[in-house]
Amino acid sequence: EFMALRLENSDGCSGRLQVFYNGTWGSICSNSMTLDTVLLACKELGCGDGGSLETQLPYGRVSGPTWLDKVRCGEKTSSFWQCPSAPWNPQSCEDPREEIHITCNGRRPEMPSIPLAPCPNSTRCTDREKIRAVGGEDRCSGRVEVWHRGSWGTVCDDSWDMRDAEVACRQLGCGPAVSALHEAAFGEGTGPIWLEQVECRGTELSLQDCWARPGDGGACRHKEDAAVNCSDSPQGSLSGSGRFSVPIIICIILGVLLCLLLALLAGQALSTRAGRR
C-alpha cells in the first residue's frame, strides 16, 4: 500500500538502491537497469539529476527481500514509480551481484552546523537512542523527536495515530501507548520536521522501520508536531520537572501508612499492658 525509495549509505545519495514495500525494505536487481532509471531514482531522492551504476563492489550475502527486477524507465518517464518492471517478488535476485548500487551526482543540502550529540551521531547507537520525547513530565511523554542527518527534528501529526504512538513508545522503552497527541500538544519544536504521513502497522521496532514521507518540504509546520503519552515512567529516577515519579510517590505513601499503623498497634499494646497492671 505504501512505497518509498532509499540509498543505503550514510550520505543517502549512494549505495544499494532499496524500495520499501509490504512493510519491508528490500533491494532492486540490476537486470535491464538503464541510466534513465538511475536518473529518476536520484531525482526521486533529491540527489541530483543523474548518476552512475557501480561495479566491482565487495558483495556480501543478500539480507532481506529483493523486491524488484527488470525496472525499465524510458526517457519520457517522469517518475520512478511509473517505470514498468517485473512483478513484485521477494526473491527477485538470486545472486547478490545482481543488486543495484548507484552513485548520484548530487548531494542533499546539508543542515546548518549544529553541535552533534555523541551517541545519536554514532553508527553504534541503537534505534532507541535515536528518538526522544520532549516537553513532558518524563522521558516517556512529550513531543516526538527523531535523530536524522546530524540533528534532532520533529514528526508531523498528519495520519499520526495509536499504531504510530505504539511504535514510538516501544522504541522509547516506555511500554504501551496511552494516547497519540496532535497539534503540538507539548509545545512546538524547532529545526527540521523529518517525517510526515507516518504509517506504522504497530508491530515495528522503531519509527525508522515504518513507511513515511521525507519531511521538511514545507507541507507541515511545527504547530502540527506529533506527541505521545506512554504507559510506563522511567523507574528509579526523577522526572524532568524535578518531581518524583508515580511509583515512588505510592511507595512513600504506603510506607507512611505502615508506620502509622505500627505506631497505633504499639500504643494499643502499651495501653493494654498498663490496664492489666
The whole-number mean of residue pLDDT values reads 79
Q: Mind describing the biggest β-sheet?
A: 7 strands, mixed
Strand content: 15-25%
Question: Alpha-carbon distance between the termini?
Answer: 86 Å
Order of helices and strands: EEEHEEEEEEHEEEEH
Shape: elongated
Number of domains as seen in the coordinates:
2
Q: How many helices does DSSP assign?
A: 3
CATH topology of the largest domain: Mac-2 Binding Protein
- Our Rg estimate from Cα atoms comes to 26 Å
The tally of strands reads 13
What does this structure look like?
With 277 residues, the protein is an alpha+beta fold. The protein folds into 2 domains: 4-104, SRCR-like domain (Mac-2 Binding Protein), CATH 3.10.250.10; 131-230, Mac-2 Binding Protein, CATH 3.10.250.10. The chain has 3 helices and 13 strands; from the N terminus they run E-E-E-H-E-E-E-E-E-E-H-E-E-E-E-H. The strands form 2 sheets. Strands 7, 8, 9, 10, 11, 12 and 13 form a 7-stranded mixed beta sheet that branches. Strands 1, 2, 3, 4, 5 and 6 form a 6-stranded mixed beta sheet that branches. The radius of gyration is 26 Å and the shape is elongated.
